[in-house]
């Protein structure tokens, strides 16, 4: 999980195609309450990307030209994290963190006009060499990326996802793409466009990418919204255009006079960017020379993905006593008729090839393959060769309640991960040892130890008191923004505490492992798994059983 952001100022946006009115003031003018600095934004992003933090600034202005001549632009690029500005008329190259930086500019200082500030905070899980975002290539394209690539783009063993994506985007006909048709024109013979590349990514992602030659900004989220990206469209109170993975606490609007019935506050500054691919192509108005960006939303070009998005679940109600092979055949028939769109998305790495036949086995196999993708592909911890060091490392943790979802994940993870690695099981309780989730978690660990005795399972007990979390509440509200109900807050605090991994474990004090002491422990895992949704899919809650008893499958 990384943190990415962009702040754009000094230009106007044409939002007519999105039906967003940038001129209308917000119902509660809050500009004076929402002043936050770039440093505030960096601090919020750094919590998501603790390994590195970088900043790149791009300045663009139009050059006055004679009537009838093509509009010209001049550009100034500054990488803030390395303290070097590239600013002469000749090509300049410098290696910074393994990246080639290049810029053309005809001035010796930042120029007036549009200003783009790219921020990237990285939590690196893949690649043998450390990277620092934003990435910039020799063509001055800039990328900040928060995502994982499981397919659709080839990623070498030694590469980071963002590096592979940067290369793929750079190979596109960025300067020759017609944004209306997404097809290459002119002499370029390559078939892929930026929209094609993003449509083919298999995995969760959010992206901000600047194609310098076309003076076009690309941004968006995967079709299922698995990575957050907030947007602030320009308003009268704040004319900036902003994108960010998370909102700074100082950009939250709190007003006791506007509390809603279901929430804690009203937030009017940020909104969640709808899933999709967007572009802003910049041009200069001949009347005043002001840089204007036209915002467009693009259709997915991957047919399998479009079919999956539009897929509707078919409800099959079994007859009493018909839980038999014929019922399984009916389900499999329905599955096969809708699985064409899943075929490409479910191609997996070599390894477990267990035969599947029943719907339950199909689901289990899909979960197993998903875990393989999220563990075996990550190479950041595989450079450690010492067995003892691997045991200490514990690269994977599970948010663990001992319920159906987390137990299934833990059991499958044991099949996918080398036995030399420890697995941290993170359990949050607001009622100490008497909380139902703590009781079920301890029972779950005993069961896991029985079925996987060679694995060292660490139950990390994270205790908290809601009455003492006042200072954390504001921070968590900024993390879940724009969600703002009490239910969102309660779930968010539990997830935030669990993901911190700061709790207690029981440590053996004798050779026979009969006596233990409780000691402080903080998980160092970089890969965190959560099984949200399995209880719903597998009807694991008591209410499902109650509804079934009352009205059968139709009610459940």
Give the total of domains.
2
**Superfamily at the CATH H level of the largest domain?**
Aminohydrolase, N-terminal nucleophile (Ntn) domain
- Work out the number of β strands: 25
Segments where pLDDT lies below 50 for 5+ residues?
22-33, 82-111, 174-190, 254-267, 323-328, 334-352
Q: Percent range for helical residues? A: 25-40%
Oligomer: single chain
What would you say the CATH architecture of the largest domain is? 4-Layer Sandwich
In short:
The protein is an alpha+beta fold and 556 residues long.
Write the topology of this structure.
Layout (H helix, E strand, L loop, with lengths): L2 E7 L2 E3 L23 H9 L5 E12 L8 E8 L4 E3 L7 E3 L2 E3 L12 E9 L12 E2 L5 E6 L13 H10 L6 E2 L4 E2 L9 H7 L4 E7 L4 E6 L8 E3 L8 E4 L26 E2 L3 E9 L6 E8 L4 H8 L14 H13 L2 H4 L15 H18 L10 H7 L2 E4 L4 H13 L6 E7 L6 H16 L5 E7 L6 H11 L5 H15 L1 E7 L7 E7 L4 E3 L4 H4 L4 H10 L5
Parallel strand pairs: 2-19, 20-21, 20-25, 21-22
Antiparallel strand pairs: 1-8, 1-16, 3-4, 3-8, 4-5, 6-7, 9-10, 10-13, 11-12, 13-14, 14-18, 15-16, 15-17, 18-19, 23-24
